[in-house]
Every structure is written in C-alpha cells, then in structure tokens.
TrEMBL record:
<dbReference type="Pfam" id="PF22941">
    <property type="entry name" value="TADA2A-like_3rd"/>
</dbReference>
<dbReference type="InterPro" id="IPR055141">
    <property type="entry name" value="TADA2A_B-like_dom"/>
</dbReference>
<dbReference type="GO" id="GO:0006357">
    <property type="term" value="P:regulation of transcription by RNA polymerase II"/>
</dbReference>
<dbReference type="GO" id="GO:0003682">
    <property type="term" value="F:chromatin binding"/>
</dbReference>
<protein>
    <recommendedName>
        <fullName>Transcriptional adapter 2-alpha/beta-like domain-containing protein</fullName>
    </recommendedName>
</protein>
<dbReference type="GO" id="GO:0006338">
    <property type="term" value="P:chromatin remodeling"/>
</dbReference>
<feature type="compositionally biased region" description="Polar residues">
    <location>
        <begin position="173"/>
        <end position="185"/>
    </location>
</feature>
<feature type="domain" description="Transcriptional adapter 2-alpha/beta-like">
    <location>
        <begin position="19"/>
        <end position="94"/>
    </location>
</feature>
<feature type="region of interest" description="Disordered">
    <location>
        <begin position="159"/>
        <end position="185"/>
    </location>
</feature>
<dbReference type="GO" id="GO:0003713">
    <property type="term" value="F:transcription coactivator activity"/>
</dbReference>
<feature type="compositionally biased region" description="Basic and acidic residues">
    <location>
        <begin position="159"/>
        <end position="172"/>
    </location>
</feature>
<dbReference type="GO" id="GO:0005634">
    <property type="term" value="C:nucleus"/>
</dbReference>
Amino acid sequence: SNLSPLIRARSEGNQVEITGYNVKRDDFEPEYDNDAEFPLAELEIRVEDSEADKATKREMLRLYWKRQKERYERRHFVLSRGLLNVKKQQAAEKKLGKAEKDLAASLRVFSRFQSPEDHATLVEGLLRESRLRARIQQLKEYRRAGVLSMAEAELYEQDKRRRDSEREKLKQQESYLQQPAYKSSSAMRANRYFNRLGSGAAAEEGAEGLGL
C-alpha cells in the first residue's frame, strides 16, 4: 500500500459508508463546508481589472483560504482523535445509558479545545457527578417509600418494574382502542349487530301480519 503509516493508523476501523472518509484520497465526501469552492468557480484576476475589482477578488481568495483552513483543521481533528474507528466509538457508547450518552454528546463541542486526556477527564468527571446525583435521588425515593435495607430496596425495585410494565401495557391498550382502524371496525361490528336485530324485528312483524 502507498498509504503512509500515519494515515493507515488514523484510519483504522474506518467505515466509509458511515464516516464518508476516503482513505486513499485522504478526504471526506462530502467535505466540511462543501460549497466553499463555488464562489471561485468563475474567478479570474485580469490585468485590465480595476484596483477595486482586484481588491474584491483578493478578499474572496482570502475568505476561501480561511474556509479551507477550517476544513483541514476539522479533518485533522477527526483523524488525530481516532474518531474514524466506528466500532471503537460504538463500543464506548454501549457502556453508557441514554442520559449519559446525551451528556457525553453535549460535551463533544469542547473536545476541539482540549487534549484527548483533558477531555476524557472532563467527561468522566461529569458522568460520575451525574451518576452520584441519580443515586442520591434513588436513595431519597427509598426513604420516602419507607425502605430500610438493600433487601427491601430490591423488592421495591421489582415491584416498581412490575407496575411500570403494567402501566405501559395499559397505555398501549388505550392507544390501540383510540386508533381509527379499531374504531371503524367496532362501528362496523355494531352496525352489523343492529342490522341483524332490525332484520329479525322485520321478520317478526311480517310473520305476525301473515298470522303465523
């Protein structure tokens, strides 16, 4: 392979269909700020341009350079932090609950301004704080419920899960009963029932009229 060892190492675990990173070209599809080149498509600095026109075009080039710089910095960040390793990222996320995933995701914006070690310390510290807060709330709930031991706490949690499960089943049943399809089928059954009653009543009246 003609790839440098650095590129190969940084792209380990890359799944192009997810990340969009092409290892051989060393770029993303699409790139960050993918339309940055569009304003320059027809740009041409000619000798006969006025100084004002030349100044405008130079400013366009300066702005393009700035956008390119941001693009390369972001690319370097993704590569240097090993973020292309999809399986590794997914494995790390599996260890977290939904609330913890949301917290970690909200902190990613700070990772560009920190070393990997500092960012990991920040995330772990806030996750630990979140877990402690959740545990404190759980213990307060136990106290309000009169739970006095861990054995009682386990029984309380089992009963809580059972109640939650029953509540969810009831909610699903209520949701089903509110569906238009169920209502229409119920109405159809009711109509058939009343039609049968009506037919039976008409038959009885006819029989009486015939003296049967």
